[in-house]
Amino acid sequence: MKWILPLLLLQVLGCQTAQQRDFEFASSRTTQLKPLSSWPATQCRVRVQLTEPALARYREMHPDLVIEAVNHWRWLANERGCELRSLTLENSPVLESQKALLANVFCVLLQTHYVNSPFDDIVFEPQHIHSNLETVQIRLGERPELGLFLKRDQFRIDTVTQSRGTFGATYAEVLQRQTWLPERIEQRKDSAGITLDNLHYTGTTINGRPMLRSFTVQLGEEQTVPHSQVVINRCLVD
Question: In 33-152, which residue ranges form alpha helices assigned H by DSSP?
């Protein structure tokens, strides 16, 4: 019986060592995205071109309206806020629908994963870490299914929330392998989904960060449908 206590101690120490190792892994991800925590007030011009499937859908919904394939917007963002303004003089139900979608694109998905880091305002300790072979979870709150899930084999963060569904972002190094920025961002809730894919960046930097140049918006959960092509230019720091 004397061997039982040392064995239990070894098991406890082994768990603590694994948890500490996973805590350091999560902390390293936080450090890699730390440059995203600083963003000056910036405004950019945004060009949005609808795809043919999106145009067909809008024309089906509004057969009496002339649907423009291209519209322009003004994107204003800082660390704590975001606003999207239409540069089209005449308003319409189609523009209102597009604005609702683009507001989610710019003021939720990009605001959380590009303008800011998904780790911002999150404080965690080793006891918040729960892991398996594939992911390291930073558990937030009492519900075990909520929190940030970090993939071990790639730089991907899935954030499971209580009311907004699940956000996912895959990061890659840009600017000569010095800065980590998202190359794909997703949101899934119920049976709906939105994906920002093919994110490309310019050589121009704002506060040391390459400026986002273009990306595609896709709708759907499992089989996505292209909605629009977004191009960003004429960015100015206020």
Answer: 52-61, 93-104
